[in-house]
Design a protein that fits this description.
Largest sheet: 2 strands, antiparallel
Order of helices and strands: HHHHHHHHHHHEE
CATH architecture: Up-down Bundle
Strand content: 5-15%
Structural class: mainly alpha
Radius of gyration: 23 Å
Number of helices: 11
CATH topology: Vanadium-containing Chloroperoxidase, domain 1
Number of strands: 2
Shape: globular
CATH class: Mainly Alpha
Strand order of the largest sheet: 1-2
Distance between the termini: 48 Å
Number of domains: 1
C-alpha cells in the first residue's frame, strides 16, 4: 500500500513539474489572445493627400493587460479575491449550476446500482487520480506557477498562477460549504461526499487554462480533469452524481475568475484615404 501511494505521489509530482514548465516556457508564447500594439502614424499622414496611414491599434497592448492581471500587493490580491465571490452569482453561474444540478439529480437514481456493478473492479489506471486532483497538487501547481512568474519577471505566467490561486480558494470554499450543508455519505461509508472536491478543483483549473490559451491547451486540461473525476468513482470515494455537480461547479468558478480576460479578437480604428474604418482582428 505504501508503494502504491508513493507511486501515486510520484506521478502527481511529475505532472506538476510538467505543467509548471509548460506555463513558464510555452504558455506565454502560445497564447491566442494577443492585442495589437499602438502603431504611430507618420507626421505627413493625411487622408486628403493620399498618403497611406497605418492602422492605429488600441492604446493598451498585451503587456498592459497582463500587468493589470497581476496584483500589486497583498491588499490588491485580497480585493480581487473578494470581488471574485461578489461576481460569482450571475446568470451564467446559475445556468451552469442548475444544469449540472439537474443532471446530478437524475444521476442519483443510478448511483447505488453503479457502485454495486463496480464492486471489486477498481482499475489500476485510475490510481493516480486521487493525488493529481488533491488539494496539495493543485495548490502546489498554482503557487509554483505564480512564484515562477514572479522570479522570472514573466507577467503572463504570474497572471496564470494568480488566477489558479483564486480558482483554488473559491472552489475549496464553495465545495466545503456545500459538503457541510449536505452531509452525504460516501460509497465507502465515510462522510462529505457531495460534491466532489477533487473534481470541482480540477475542472476549475482546466477552465482557467482553456480561457487563457484556447482549446488546444483546454482539451488536454479537461481530459485530465475528467480522468480525476472518473478516478473518484472508481475508488468508491464518490457517486457519479457527486462528480457531475463538481464538474459544473468547477467550470462556474473558472469562468468567474477569468471574467476579465479579453476575447480572442480585437477592434482597431484605421485611418483611410476616404476617412475612417474599423478592422476586426481574430487569432485562429
Amino acid at each position: 500500500m505504501n508503494v502504491m501511494r508513493a507511486a501515486g505521489s510520484l506521478r502527481a509530482g511529475i505532472l506538476l513539474v510538467i505543467w509548471s514548465s509548460c506555463a513558464t516556457a510555452g504558455f506565454a508564447q502560445s497564447s491566442p489572445l494577443p492585442v495589437p500594439q499602438l502603431t504611430p502614424a507618420p507626421s505627413d499622414c493625411r487622408p486628403a493627400t493620399g498618403v497611406a496611414c497605418p492602422p492605429l491599434g488600441p492604446t493598451a497592448g498585451t503587456e498592459t493587460r497582463r500587468a493589470e492581471e497581476v496584483p500589486s500587493g497583498f491588499r490588491d490580491a485580497m480585493r480581487t479575491i473578494g470581488q471574485d465571490f461578489v461576481s460569482f452569482p450571475s446568470t451564467k453561474t446559475f445556468t451552469l449550476l442548475g444544469a449540472s444540478g439537474a443532471l446530478a439529480l437524475v444521476g442519483t437514481a443510478g448511483d447505488r446500482a453503479l457502485v454495486r456493478n463496480l464492486d471489486g473492479t477498481r482499475l489500476p489506471v485510475f490510481r493516480a487520480g486521487a493525488r493529481m486532483g488533491g488539494l496539495e497538487a493543485h495548490a502546489g501547481l498554482a503557487l509554483g506557477t505564480f512564484v515562477a512568474g514572479r522570479l522570472s519577471g514573466n507577467k503572463e505566467v504570474t497572471a496564470l498562477g494568480f488566477q489558479l490561486i483564486r480558482a483554488n480558494l473559491m472552489t475549496q470554499a464553495i465545495t466545503h460549504g456545500i459538503k457541510f450543508a449536505t452531509h452525504r455519505v460516501r460509497p465507502d461509508g465515510t462522510g462529505s461526499s457531495f460534491p466532489s472536491g477533487h473534481t470541482s478543483t480540477s475542472f476549475a483549473a482546466a477552465t482557467v487554462v482553456q480561457r487563457r490559451y484556447g482549446w488546444k491547451v483546454g482539451v488536454p486540461a479537461f481530459a485530465l480533469a475528467s480522468y480525476v473525476a472518473a478516478s473518484r468513482v472508481n475508488d468508491r470515494r464518490h457517486f457519479a452524481s457527486d462528480v457531475i455537480f463538481g464538474a459544473g461547479l468547477g467550470v462556474a468558478v473558472g469562468l468567474t475568475v477569468t471574467r476579465d480576460n479579453p476575447r480572442a479578437g480585437s477592434f482597431a480604428p484605421v485611418v483611410t484615404r476616404g476617412g475612417m474604418a474599423v478592422f476586426w482582428t481574430k487569432t485562429w
